[in-house]
Amino acid sequence: MQQGRPAPPPISPGPPPTPFEVLDRTLPPTSPWAIGARLISLIEKRGRSAVIFIPYVWLVLFFLVPFFIVLKLSFSEAVLAQPPYAPLLDLVDEAGNWYLSARFNLSNYITLLTDDLYVRAYLSSLKIAATATLLTLAVALPLAYAIARAPESWRLTLLMLIILPFWTSFLIRVYAWIGILKNEGLLNALLLGLGLISEPLIILNTNVAVYIGIVYSYLPFMVLPIYASFDRMDPSLIEAAIDLGCRPSTSFWKITVPIAFPGIVAGCMLVFIPAVGEFVIPDLLGGSQTLMIGRLLWVEFFSNRDWPLASAVAIVLLLILVLPIMYFQRSQARRAEREAPQ
Predict the structure, then answer these.
(1) pLDDT at 5
(2) Topology given in CATH for the domain delimited by 107-339
């Protein structure tokens, strides 16, 4: 008896189509609903790629695209028109011949390098931001350590008190400091009532008021990353150091602070970077002598209507902040490679 070939395995019909695939097939291909269903079905099929792709799309749309727009404006020339700048690329017709004309104007960057006003504004902004960052660190370091060492039932409440000011508007919080720091404000009234001073202190419209405003406004950005570093620390390390004869202050600086160093660096960056370009705090709390690049940028953009120069100010400020951060990250990566076990 001749034995026949074995029957082929049944062909699997594959997974059933998803509702979005059915919607894509039933609608016209160019309709918005079909395009949306096609994108959603693609995300469903390639979920991991979509998770990685979406942040890159966000960075391109909300960082790279605005950056290149500002960069293009910085090479333009200010004109009395609407918009108040000349086009960078222009189609020119000469005797019926069309060609593309590109005009790159470097005078804005030359102005920033040669005008003493902008040089002093950049240096003053860096100085104020660095000083305010150090003051914020001085307040946040013991505060974060105290929260990390507090009983576990109290930590959430203490962290909520740190975050609580964010529940109100940033502008309202800065305005509140005007009522506290002015000559007839709450602070001077309290000091006069206690007999500590004989006449009101002049704090408002000075750099001291700007430091107070920056420290108060950005304190949570410093406390939270340092607290996260302290919270992961093993308390037995401190106990072992004290058992070996180390004083509490010495163990704090030689054991606790190095462990919290990543959180300190993260907090300093979160405070220093926005403080350099701060506009609201120096405009409301600072005086005429408070020179910061954020105020100059606002004046050039809205008062002088010089959008190209204001764009150049923003580009140079971005380079001043980004390049040192990139260098620091690269040096930290090289240090980690050297310390890694072979």
Answers:
(1) 57
(2) MetI-like fold (1.10.3720)
